[in-house]
User: Which sequence fits this backbone?
């Protein structure tokens, strides 16, 4: 490559803009309470992650630890005390950002038992429940479970649908869920190719359909935020800022 070729190559390279998430205002999916799931491992790490999220322009965080019967047996009894400790540490460090906690519930028998037994469910806002499933196989009676949740006063929000292989492959199910107005939340990281190119492509397809209600960082650690900082390179970054989403209402 000659000098002129190098110059032309450099000239064509677009500089990466600083990541600005102020348009989203509220991140409603993250794992920032230390030591209770696969997210932040220490209070120090949590404070560092939250500082970075604040610097991206977010005004509020709703952190959502995993609740999963086989792996993360969290409950309000583990999540809410962790939230209070985190709030105290943020105050001591003069990190001024609003933070609340809900949960990311894995759809399994334990969740349905909680709902049927009228146990306390940690919701976002009044009745939104962030839920997830396994990535490969569709849960049995998925649509029936969503219906059951709604009959009990909850509005399910399906976390990162772009990552579910069964949704990528089953367009009929996908559009059935959309037609039932199941709220979808896309991970911003999916648009960077962080998970895979097929997931990135599917996330873009869902955005093109104009049916996404929420975006989230799904922040677990610094590696997530390092990659998130490349989001301005995505051809969809400007597009998602113009979408009508519900984050700012939380």
Assistant:
């Amino acid at each position: 490559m000659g000098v002129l070729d190098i110059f032309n190559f450099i000239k064509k390279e677009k500089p990466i803009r600083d990541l600005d998430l102020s348009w989203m205002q509220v991140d409603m999916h993250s794992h920032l309470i230390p030591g209770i799931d696969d997210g932040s491992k220490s209070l120090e790490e949590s404070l560092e992650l939250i500082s970075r999220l604040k610097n991206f322009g977010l005004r509020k965080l709703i952190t959502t630890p995993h609740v999963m019967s086989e792996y993360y047996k969290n409950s309000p009894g583990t999540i809410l005390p962790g939230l209070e400790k985190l709030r105290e540490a943020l105050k001591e460090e003069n990190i001024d950002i609003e933070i609340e906690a809900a949960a990311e519930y894995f759809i399994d028998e334990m969740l349905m038992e909680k709902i049927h037994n009228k146990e306390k469910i940690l919701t976002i806002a009044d009745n939104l429940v962030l839920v997830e499933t396994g990535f490969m196989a569709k849960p049995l009676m998925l649509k029936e479970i969503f219906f059951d949740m709604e009959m009990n006063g909850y509005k399910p929000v399906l976390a990162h649908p772009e990552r579910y292989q069964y949704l990528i492959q089953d367009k009929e199910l996908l559009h059935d869920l959309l037609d039932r107005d199941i709220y979808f939340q896309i991970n911003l990281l999916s648009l960077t190719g962080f998970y895979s190119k097929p997931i990135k492509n599917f996330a873009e397809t869902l955005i093109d359909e104009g049916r996404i209600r929420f975006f989230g960082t799904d922040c677990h650690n610094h590696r997530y935020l390092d990659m998130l900082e490349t989001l301005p390179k995505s051809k969809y970054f400007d597009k998602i800022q113009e979408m009508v989403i519900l984050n700012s209402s939380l």
The radius of gyration is 19 Å. The chain has one domain: 22-244. The beta strands are 26-27, 60-63, 66-67, 98-101, 104-106, 128-132, 155-159, 183-187, 214-216. The first helix runs from residue 3 to 12.
